[in-house]
Every structure is written in structure tokens, then in C-alpha cells.
Amino acid sequence: MLGRRQHMALAVTAVLAAAAACTNHARQDSGRGAPAGSAARGFTLVASGGVLPQTSVVDRAAYDAGESGYDFRPMLADVEPVVSRADLALCHMDTVYGTGGEHSGYPPFKSPPQIAQGLTATGYDGCSTASSHALDDGAAGIRRTLDAMDEAGLKHAGTARSAAEAHSVTIFAAGPARVAHLSYTLDAGANPLPAGEPWAVSLADEQRMISDARAARQAGADVVVVSVHWGTDWQDAPDEQQLALARRLTASSTAGRPDIDLILGSHAHVPQAYEKVNGTWVIYGMGEQIPGETYQRGARDPRGNESTLGRFTFLPPARPGDRWRVTKAEFIPEWFDPDAGRVVDLNRAIADGAELGAVRDRIRDVTLSRGAAKDGLVMGE
């Protein structure tokens, strides 16, 4: 797959300055970026919402596997064409992985490690892992999860197995660009940080996030992408904390160049708006890509099965050292069919005659609710 996609995570050889307090993960890799002469071309980045498998989803993956194990590839097959065609595809892994047959859908979440293989097979290159469920099985759950992701070839940022890992940065090659991926959560849920391991989960703090973004730039990143686990559960509109943090993060710059180039939000369980803030695209919430049947206060809430894929086309600057520009911003509406256990590309499903137009229209209305259309956001195909 890496040969077809022509990108993989680059090794970060620069030692990050201690003052930068960078708390993101380094990944060893042999990729060297695009061949000489290709610098004029850009790249596309696709991002999707939370992978938060309920028990019914785990049961479906077991059924799809046949005689033994779990197979999540059929669940994601409908969005594979969109994901695999991107130069860089990022997901949000909301849960940790169990061991052997020890899996649960809530509470706490312990997902089968085979889900990492399903994500890689779909075309994903990496996932954010900082979430309110990152400590559902303590430090052991984090280690087990990151080990399984490493084995599947799926990069990660947001949780760590060691202080050294926590103080490094994840950088991918996407076409001719180097893209850093940072990940944070506003809280780690009801579970305390492991004793002696305060770095196990990257907690969101404005100054820390900006410092990390600057350190990533110093490590060679052309584009810095920040994933944030934030927002109010089941609220379509971003809350004041999201809005304020987005304004402050996107206002930060160094030598006139913004420190952060894209913000990807998750956690609210429902899609939220896209918005251009201080010239930078912010997705407040992409919804849950793989949820299962969703309930709010004991009542079924179908909005929890709605989500979006964000797709952004970046082009290089006219002058070295300037910002890479987003020249096209798109969203693709998704729906998780809880009966079939499948992620559905709504544009494709509706084109094929499925009666899901109202669901797609609701997602569209929420996504555009803060005026993103005037800044060029369109519904992609």
C-alpha cells in the first residue's frame, strides 16, 4: 500500500529543544518524500471521525471474519475509494485494544486489535489516540494499543509508552510535503493518569499545543495538523471552549507564518461545523465514523451514526518558508448503518437510489452552519 500511495512516515532525526516541550510521538521510517522535481505539486489530506466500536460492531466484525477473529475491512469498504486515493489519511482511534478475547463495547471500551489492520487496509496512515477513553485499561491498554498499531503499520499520536515517545513528533511524507500530526484531549475521562507516567496521554493546553506545533516546524514539518478531542456530547454547535481555543490556536504565528495549519475535532458523537478561523480551517467535530447503535440518556439518537470525512488539497507556497495553502476544502457525509454494520458514503448511496437524502441534508446543514460555504467549503464526491 505504501508503494501505491507513495508516502510513509519520515524518521525525525532532529532532537527537539527541551524548551519546546514537544509531547508527540516519533515514528521511524525509511521514506524520503517525493522525487526531485515534484515540489510544484501538492497533496490531499483526508480525515475522519472517531472509531468507537460498540459491542454490536465488535460482534459484526466477528461475523465478517467467519470462523475466527475479527475483520473490520468490510465495515469500511464503502469509504475505501475516498481514503485510499488521498496522499495522507488520518483517523481518530477513540478506544484502546483488549487482549485475546477480552473485548467490550462500554463500559469500558476494549476493542479488538484487528481494527488497526482494517484501518490500514482501508488506506489510513495514522490515527490520533488522545481521547477520554485512552485510559480505559490504564497504561497497559495504551501499550497494547500502540503495539498493535505499530504491527499493522498504522502510525499514531496522542498517547505514549515512554517519556521519549511522548517527547517526539510524528511526521508523514505526503507527496512532496512533510506533515506533522499532533493529538490532544481536553480530559482523559474518569481514569487517572498512570502513576509516574504523566506523559501517557497528551492533555490539551493552549501553550503546550503551540509550543509543540513550533517544535514540529523546527523538526522539518511543512504542514502542522492538530487533532483535538473536545466539545460537548450530543451538541451540534461547538461550545464556547472549542470556539475560544480554536481562535487562540489559529491566531498563533511565528515570523508571520501560522503555527498550525489545520485543526481536526472529535468527541461530541455528532457532526459539528467546519469553519475558517483566522485563515485556518477548523473542523469542530467529525462525528463517529464507527459507533454502533447510539443512545443519549437511554433513548436512541440516530445523529450518533452521522459523520463527515474532511478532505483538503494543499499546494506549496510560492516562496520557500511561506505557508502551504489549502486550495480546496471538502466534506463528504457518512452514515453508519447499525443493522448492516457498515460505514456508508452517503453521496454514493443516494446516487445508487438509497433513501438517505434527509440524513445527508442534515449533515450538510450542520457542517455549513457557521458560514463555511462562503470560504469555499463544498460537499465532495
From TrEMBL:
It comes from the Bacteria. Residues 44-293 form the Capsule synthesis protein CapA domain. InterPro entries: Capsule_synth_CapA, CW_Biosynth-Accessory, Metallo-depent_PP-like. SUPFAM superfamilies: Metallo-dependent phosphatases. PANTHER family: PGA BIOSYNTHESIS PROTEIN CAPA (PTHR33393:SF13), POLYGLUTAMINE SYNTHESIS ACCESSORY PROTEIN RV0574C-RELATED (PTHR33393). Belongs to the CapA family. This is CapA family protein. The lineage of its organism: Bacteria, Bacillati, Actinomycetota, Actinomycetes, Kitasatosporales.
